[in-house]
Amino acid sequence: MHSTQRGLLAINALLLLAAVPAADADSVGEFLVFLQDDGEHYLIQRALRSDAREHRLHVDKSLSLDRLGYIDPDAFRWDDSGADGNVLIFAQGDFTVMYPGRFDAAELAREDDGTFAFSSWDGRVRDDGHFGLWHEPGGFTRFNYAWILPAHFEVIDYASNRDGKWVERGNTLTFFASDVNDLTFTIRYRERDGDGDGVPDRSDQCPDTAHDQPVNGQGCDPDSDGDGVYDRDDQCAGTARGLAVDAIGCEPDRDHDGVPDARDLCGRSPTGSAVDASGCTVDSDSDGIGDYDDRCPGTPTGLFVDRSGCEPDPDGDGVPLSVDRCPDTQAGQAVGTDGCEVDSDGDGVIDREDRCPQSAEGAAVDRGGCEIDCDADGVANSLDRCPGTPSGRSVDETGCEPDSDADGVVDALDRCAETPRDRVVDDKGCEYDADGDGVVDALDRCPDTPSARRVDDGGCEPDADNDGVVDVLDLCPDTPANRSVNAGGCEVDADSDGVVDALDLCPGTPRDRSVNEGGCEPDADADGVVDLLDLCPDTPANRTVNAGGCEYDADGDGIADDLDACLDTAPGARIDGVGCEPDDDGDGVKNAADLCAATVRGVRVDATGCDSGKPIRLDGVGFPTGSDRLTDASRGVLDRVAGSLRRHPELALEVAGHTDAQGDAASNLDLSQRRANRVMRYLLARGVELKLLVAKGYGEEKPVAGNDTDQGRAMNRRVELRRLGD
């Protein structure tokens, strides 16, 4: 509602506008007084917006209510109780005081440094020059402008294009001028920020922040993880919310092992010791001595150790008792890897007692460690190839008497000293002629010729038909060549079936059997068993049969081998129609060798018939409470497991023991290790020889179900076989 009434409002007094502190940086006012003489006289007072409770305009001359068209607030009232003049009060909101037209200046602008700037410039072009406050001749001689800043604002600077007096008192800035015309002034201000952190004082919860210190939206040092320690002091800036921290923002770790106390199960670990995720000292070789105190951290599993983690060495020779074959060695003596004193030449006499410490390997020595020469020929037994040479005989370097013709008879006894080499001689060194036919045995092709028989150059009697029977004994002297003959020189019919062996296709026919022209007994079904002995005379052609003429059943399962798809079925095993043991779950592993006989079809299994991607749980293996002794039922289960594993020596397995979370974690870990050891030893005792078999207890660390129910705890108390390398 803007009045269109025209006229002149002469004000020879003070125009004062006061504002209560605004609510925030955008709740500010732009207050302009504008009097222009360009053919019309008008007064403009404008406020962009303010959230102040109320605004007051003081005048020293009454304004009649019919002149209120010059003021256009959302709500207003008059207070005329004061002695100095009337007070026009208009409430918070948008308002305009004008006459006779409307001022259309640009909106409130904010500069890069966070300040606000206001001026009377409205962007219009007039021929009479500058815009501002113009003097009306005869009436307007004095002008006062008062600006009351909210308490949380501060003045940056102010200026005017005309001489006048600026007075700054508290939070009020006033401009006094007389006889002014063409007036323009600018006031710049901003909200106060005492510590210069970019957060106005009215919103700053930490008004004394150090200069250039990063702050959050409340003007305080940031605490990103909300642990109560500012980021600039926080050495653990990512601490989870709700955790207790120390003065530097980190979770307490009293033993400085890198595991916070809240998760540390061993809160007093020695300084510098390696610990696991639970804060307990690592025991790499599982000997019960933590690595920090263990002087022998690589001790094999299961060996007894002392308090320093090393195997006992009673004689102090540096060789542990478990491998020391001489556990009572005198102090200070050099020993080998077996714990016994050194015997460099391996002659059984230790070096400190050996008078001949470089005896040849394997040589017999006397008590002083020197080689023996039993025949006293000057050649030690280890080099003497003739250790029984008679005393006083001449010998060579091998300890033997000379034998010039190398016939085995020494020259001293040889009556035929030039016998050709490699001939057999008698004890006098001469060649043998055993049959006395005049041809020495070395040249005699018939060394057993009867006495007084005529022989050829080869020492043999004549045999005209070359049948192997000499003529003097041959009853059939004209036997065809290459025929087998008997002692009388006649062709052999060994089975006396009337067919000589040379023509007999069945030369071993029993006597008095009927044979065909080939000398063989009839075999009607051609199975290789003659009819007389054939218990299955109608065997189909081309079948393999046994001595009784019946088809083979090598594994005795009742299925003939030619029809048997599984020829090596174990005795007594249940079979199907083709002679094979059943595989109920169809995983390719027979029931007898299948540790997981109910595997879901399609699951990939290993040689034991179990899911190759999961540990093998040994259901039925149990122990009395708190004990590592196997129950009787467990032994039956483990016997079956051992039977399967004996078929697969290529496997590498870990026997893994697990407990529920009842009781102390350390005790559970120890119990699980002992149980795993017990199962491993049982399998080894049942002949299981794998590529690798180890035992490891995990205690309560790897549950497969919750520990808050009996069922869950029962599932967690288990023994598994885990494939190494998975």
> Secondary-structure element order, as H and E?
EEEEEEEEEEEEEEHEHEHE
**Can you give the helix content as a percent range?**
under 10%
Strand content: 5-15%
Q: What is the distance, rounded to the nearest whole angstrom, between the alpha carbons of the first and last residues?
A: 87 Å
Protein architecture, described:
- The protein is 6% helix and 15% strand.
- Strands 1, 2, 3, 4, 5, 6, 9, 11 and 12 form a nine-stranded mixed sheet that branches. A four-stranded antiparallel sheet has the order 7-8-13-10, with no helix packed on it.
- A hairpin with a 2-residue loop joins strand 11 and strand 12.
- The protein is elongated and about 180 Å long.
- It is mainly beta and 726 residues long.
- Residues 1-52, 58-73, 93-111 and 113-142 have low confidence and may be disordered.
- The protein starts with 14 loop residues before the first strand and ends with a strand.
Q: Brief description of this entry?
A:
The protein has 726 residues and is mainly beta. The protein is 6% helix and 15% strand.
Present the secondary structure layout.
Layout lengths: L14 E5 L12 E4 L7 E17 L11 E3 L2 E4 L6 E14 L9 E2 L5 E3 L23 E7 L4 E8 L4 E5 L2 E7 L6 E7 L424 E2 L14 H14 L6 E7 L6 H21 L6 E6 L12 H7 L1 E6 L3
Parallel strand pairs: 1-9, 15-16
Antiparallel strand pairs: 1-3, 2-3, 3-6, 4-6, 5-6, 7-8, 8-13, 9-12, 10-13, 11-12, 14-17, 15-17
